[in-house]
Amino acid sequence: MEGVITLKNKCFLILATFNLLFYLAMKSIWSGIEGIFGVSWLQYLLLGLLVVDALLALFLRLKNTQGALPWIVEGFALLLLGGLGYMFYLGIGSLRYILRSFLINMGLLAGVLLMGFFLFRYPKTKLASSRGFRNTLIALIGSGVLAFMFLANVVFLSAKPVVYAVEDTYQIVWTTSIDATGVVKVGEDSYPDLYQGSQDSFTRIHKVEVPMAVLDAAGKYEISSTNYIYRGPYSGLAGRTVKASYDFRPLDPDDGLQIYSLSDTHEYVSAATNCGTYFGDDLDLLVLAGDIASHLEMQSDMDLILTIAHNITLGKRPVVYARGNHEVKGDVANKLFQVTGSANDALYYTFCLGPVYGIVLDLGEDHPDDWWEYYGTAHFDEYRNEQTAFLNQVLAEKDFQDPGVEFILAICHMPITYVSSHDGGTTEASLFLGELKREWTGLLNEMGVDLLISGHHHQLFQFLPDMTPYETLIFHENYQSSTDPKGYMSDADFPTFIVSRRSDVQDPKVKENLFGRKLTGLATEIDLDSKTMTHVYTNTLQEIVPIIRPFTGESVTTFALSFADLEDDE
Fold it and tell me: Rounded distance, CA 75 to CA 71, Å?
């Protein structure tokens, strides 16, 4: 009977411990508890209850307690497990982050238990007198120490290079396994990653600017990183150097321009890679329109953005990146500018790639700054005002009117020309983003933008010049039965295409694949001679996806537009 009680109390302790570790792993979605119940302290009360339940289970296990108390504790643990399961279901989109945190928590617990075993139990066991066990243990510990020393002092590439286009430079970014220097060599010229005149060797992230004209002419580059084991005031000890060489091809307008656009991949590398390689070697430009990661809690989350971009371009083609609203979240979100294209650390900027002039904008978060989810840390109104001034500066400088510019591309994660009901989508002055979007649309019209690429909505929407501005939008019955107003389109002289959807089809009745197996992106071909652009949505199977225009009900496979006509209409 005593053995049964001991086993029962062990099971109670395991369940209570699992609940606590599982809840701690879901910390990224704790705020959902406040969102559902409107009580800010409830998430911490739940944490306290889980701690108390685990401590009670430990007490029962140590005392081998009988009676009703163990069953009460177990019943409470089961009730908590049900609540945690529902919470996990609601936050399934953060699956990768939750599982990673849970495994880390399990590893820490295992380490604590192992230390406890060797401090308190091991000397009393027969294993302590076994020479074979001692020798095996010493060999394992020695091997682990040697492996750690090797990995801690030998540099490898963690994320291979991506060539971002920003203004008139390329920003070549890669990461290493440990702190190291970063140098890009183009021909005989070297471009080191500097910090106030000295090579930065205390960083894993390497971002080096190279003039576009230099790399375009050379057609290849080499990256190198050296780890310094010791860097003292008057001498240093260099460790391993890792090098890699890459060919590079700038935009080639001779056969037209091929641009592939992705957004909302939410760190699923395989699906994004399968989509983004639709053009193969013909690709001229990759556009990443935000939410490539769900949130940025660790360096490896930022590395995923580089991994997706490199898998598609192989470091051979330029990339333009716009930040998504999910990528403002997480412990290392303030370092995002280090691994993406940015201008003076800002994530809005212009770029010029041969005949293509572009502008990247960043609307930040999709709720007002006082939204409960931001707990007083959001100041995006000020950030957006900076960009209004930036847009006016771009218009005043008129670089987009350079004789070599033949196409103007705009990119913003949240679509500027679509004022959704979430934004305050009425024709009256908006409570939130509507007024700003209308203002930005007018400024982009003045610039003569030919195309806007956006994401955010996880749907394949198109806002084209044949639609009526400010008319209340309702889904067409061919797309989805709904009578709820969805907002309106602002008075844009240019088309907006929204990507991506985590599915191989457009049909909103087919739920998105939350496990990263499916995705749909946008393939754009631009003929500069005839002033036409052709757009098709393609999926992970690299098939063209048939589309129902959500607000007109029209069946479309290919969108063929003339940007010369759009300019003439201004």
Answer: 6
Give the separation between CA 307 and CA 310, rounded to whole angstroms: 5
pLDDT for 428: 43
pLDDT at site 300: 93
The band of 569, judged by pLDDT with boundaries at 50, 70 and 90, is very low
pLDDT in tens, 476-505: 999 998 888 899 999 999 999 999 899 999
* pLDDT average, residue stretch 225-246: 91
191: β partners: 184
Please state, in angstroms and rounded to a whole number, the distance separating the CA atoms of residues 146 and 95: 34
> Does 40 sit behind a cis peptide bond, omega within 30 degrees of 0 on the bond before it?
no
Q: Which CATH class is domain 257-298+314-568?
A: alpha beta
* pTM, 2 dp: 0.90
CATH 3.60.21.10, the chain: domain bounds: 257-298+314-568
Name the β-bridge partners of 521.
Answer: 538
**Calpha distance 317→314 (Å, rounded):** 7
Nearest to 498 by CA among 262, 284, 308: 262
Q: Are 193 and 207 in contact (CB under 8 A)?
A: yes
Are 258 and 279 in contact by the 8 Å Cβ rule? The answer is yes
- The pLDDT, as a whole number, for residue 430 is 43
* CB contact at 8 A, 19 and 57: no
Amino acid 391 reads: L
Give ranges for CATH 2.60.40 in the chain: 157-247
Helix, strand, coil percentages (3-state) for the chain, rounded to 5, are 40, 25, 35
Q: What percent of the chain has pLDDT over 90?
A: 66
157-247 domain in CATH 3.30.300?
no
By the 8 A CB rule, do 290 and 322 touch? yes
CA distance linking residue 274 with residue 517, whole number of Å: 10
In this predicted structure, the answer to whether residue 566 has a pLDDT above a threshold of 50 is no
Q: How many CB atoms lie within 10 A of CB 480?
A: 15
